[in-house]
Hints:
homodimer, alpha/beta, Carbamate kinase, VC0802-like, 2 domains, 13 helices, 35% helix, amino-acid biosynthesis (chains A, B), AceGlu_kinase-like_sf (chains A, B), ACT_Aspartokinase (chains A, B), aspartate kinase activity (chains A, B), transferase (chains A, B)
Amino acid sequence: MLIVQKYGGTSVGTVERIQAVADRVAETVANGSSVAVVVSAMGHTTDELVALSSALTRVPSPREMDALLSTGEQISAALLSMALEVRGVRARSFTGRQAGIETEPVFGSARIATIHTEALQTALSEGVVPVITGFQGYAGEDVTTLGRGGSDTTAVAVAAMLHADVCEIYTDVTGVFTTDPRLVKTARKLSEVSYDEMLELANLGAQVLHPRAVENAKRYQVPLVVKSSFSQEEGTYVTETSNLEQQSVVTGIAFEREVARVALIGVSLQKHGLAAVFGKLAREGVNVDVIVQSVVQTVDADVSFTVRESDADKTLSLTRAMQEELSFRDLVLETGLAKVSIVGAGMISNPGVAARMFEVLAGNGIEIKMVSTSEIKVSCIIGESDMEKAVSVLHTAFLESSPAV
Amino acid sequence: MLIVQKYGGTSVGTVERIQAVADRVAETVANGSSVAVVVSAMGHTTDELVALSSALTRVPSPREMDALLSTGEQISAALLSMALEVRGVRARSFTGRQAGIETEPVFGSARIATIHTEALQTALSEGVVPVITGFQGYAGEDVTTLGRGGSDTTAVAVAAMLHADVCEIYTDVTGVFTTDPRLVKTARKLSEVSYDEMLELANLGAQVLHPRAVENAKRYQVPLVVKSSFSQEEGTYVTETSNLEQQSVVTGIAFEREVARVALIGVSLQKHGLAAVFGKLAREGVNVDVIVQSVVQTVDADVSFTVRESDADKTLSLTRAMQEELSFRDLVLETGLAKVSIVGAGMISNPGVAARMFEVLAGNGIEIKMVSTSEIKVSCIIGESDMEKAVSVLHTAFLESSPAV
């Protein structure tokens, strides 16, 4: 059995925690498994390195930024290797280059092109635990980094290329929950979710598992387990299909605060300017989420879409600059909104779920401003002041009482 | 003109100091020179990394220790490159591997085997300043470090292989002095010393320039300049021969505290055990310095030698264990000693210098316990309580009054 274990920054944040991680790896080896480990930088190392570069320049060279940031994981990989050897476990640290993690030649957010696994396989065949720096690779002679969620991505890629039996993602929570336990006391840990559900639960799970890693896990069919490095609790399995017969219709309740809605009133549909506006927003780094178009006349429509509140001003000015092209009559911005979503693979075969969601929200006096649906998710845009109540009543309705509609 | 500039840990210790270094490099480039830079780790980075590893294990894997420590210079190299680019100077950081610095496959104290200079030469030919991590190289797939004085060694090796016109060593003192200015107020900065003098002044100069780097500079005839990164003062030139006609007989007064003397009384010279005892001490890491053998009978001799006080106990027990082999009658340890040396290339042609030194010391009531001479140095072992006075009176006699004997 070959296990890839990934330990995040909090899990290796101090010398004591590195020792706890070493104990866990040693235990896994003692149980007869082969282990490859992927580590993040210790705690706030990356922030400290960013602070140093910020003190020197507002626009650091991307190549040098990657050279700088990649040292964080090198430190934790070397330290964990030492801690393993003290425990009698043969170990060897691998930088992205040493591990053969070749990326496209892009700094700051490179994608992994391939992994030349010979060195890792040699180590494993010699009974040596490779301790691999997450978040980084190489392109030509340069060090590259993978951007946000990079260590998760490294772990999944290593697991895929080594054909590991499982990729364990150790973090500071015990797994994926039906919703945020800080918001809903009755939230419970899921024993299993599908890749797609995990992706839809992204904003719940982003702290836990980066969507990009989930996508790659799905693509290469790498079974994931999310669990805590601070306890022995069973984690949450993320696999292709959870057992359809047993599962409840709704797996979890996701939510997002600080949403803003931009409404274009009376857009001329003949002008085809909508694609242009969304293209422009994307190029400017504005992430447009829910889009709703309601035809009110034959030639005009109202189009509204949501963005992060922090992007609202930028969105307004970019959209206003295109008023002629779009020929809308009016532009309305509404802030102070939130998005609440119910997620579950079982929805596909349960068409009444969306209606039930609207009922529950309406029954609790919560106004729904926009709706968006996918095969395994229904999202409602509501007032942010209603959000916590909405999550709570939806959790009660879908995850605590009746198991199906 | 190609200049290699090496900046030590103090010179790059803070963001502000890195900016000052960047200013100096930019100025050198603006003056029309090509520059390659070698940097140490920032200030106490290396100590902090060592502390982390010490918290995990008393005997860290040498490979992992090198992987760990090498990150310190990677950080400063990336940061300095950023600071240079902000100033409009094209720059690129190079790890030991990227710079092609191949070493023997030894961790912790590898010697440089060769430098594959293609990448550095390409950068220089493109007008890019290579900012090279000192102290490290690679062997096979592994990162290796060069041990104490490693960054100086890197700088000299890079200068040698690139056929640089000069290698400037920036540090926190303004040059090499006739003796320690903290001890003797009238000590003055030397404008020039020879490689050999610099080597003999080692314990004065160790904080300034590592002996190993001086040896390599001599071997490859790399002109060195030692100067301060905190001022614009002229430094000290270290070259093959200083101008023999102009130079004074004595260049500097070196000294060393905490010396212990071990005397073996009545050693049987027939037994040839002396080589064995010094071999054994060397293998155990005891650095034997001055050795004096005085024949008192035809078959017996008194042999005394000096070691560091911190090695005295170890030396005694190792020597005592060989009493049978050596068949000495008695073993005497004396601590609280010091070594004072006068150094100067001009001594070769001035045979009276040693006698003058003994006169000066005796005239000041300082007892000489052992003497050792080389072509350009005379060392006396004296009581440590006499040391400061000895340095002072020797400085007055040789470096302040008459320029020659």
